[in-house]
Write a structure and sequence with these properties.
The protein contains 8 helices and 9 strands. The chain is α+β, with helices and mostly antiparallel strands and 201 residues long. Strand 3 and strand 4 form a beta hairpin.
């Protein structure tokens, strides 16, 4: 059995509580409580996290050290334009670098303005949207303006669409959650089948 410190993300092994121990091994209780079925499937994910914490503890790696080590790259917006990866820590920095790169490669005049919806522009000759509303967070690049008031997710999606639209080869750098965890983002239904087969008896 383990003592879990949520605040510091640490786990310590403790003495076995026989009552809890035997309850956890009671298959009949599993069936009645529908353990590992439907909404209770997250228990498996929790167990994996606990195992990971124990492994890090053995290696002497703290969660804080791990977060610090990876935070810089994890927080960075990145996109692959042809064979070059462009990145920035904020939407503004990211867009400035992307458009600077594009300006070096081609003339964007024929692709300005560019709308991301019925009311908003990503890029325009003036710092105003389609409906006349001013850009919230404009950045001026050469003689045009780019709207940077976006979430990182939307910023990445919008610039991907823009680059595709102008005919330049572009690709996402980060893999999807399913690809990271299971290797193929097109097979979430197979994960469902695995759980059903394993825990529905």
């Amino acid at each position: 059995m383990y003592d879990i410190d949520v605040e510091h993300l640490t786990v310590e092994e403790t003495e076995i509580n026989s009552e809890i121990y035997h309850f956890c091994l009671d298959v009949e209780q599993h069936r009645k409580g529908r353990w590992f079925v439907d909404e209770n499937r997250q228990v498996g994910f929790f167990n994996k996290k606990v195992a990971g914490l124990l492994e890090r503890k053995k290696k002497g790696i703290s969660s804080q050290e791990e977060r610090t080590k990876g935070s810089a790259d994890n927080d960075k917006l990145k996109i692959k334009i042809e064979n070059e990866i462009i990145g920035g820590r904020t939407v503004k920095e990211f867009y400035e670098k992307v458009f600077a790169h594009l300006n070096e490669q081609l003339d964007l005049s024929d692709n300005i303005p560019f709308a991301t919806g019925s009311k908003r522009y990503l890029v325009n000759w003036t710092d105003h949207h389609i409906n006349g509303v001013p850009f919230v967070s404009p950045v001026k690049i050469q003689n045009y303006y780019v709207e940077t008031n976006k979430s990182k997710k939307d910023a990445l999606s919008d610039i991907y669409k823009y680059i595709k639209n102008i005919g330049v080869d572009v690709d996402y750098v980060e893999k999807s959650v399913f690809e990271k965890c299971f290797g193929d983002s097109n097979k979430p239904h197979q994960i469902e089948n695995i759980y059903s087969a394993r825990f529905s008896h």
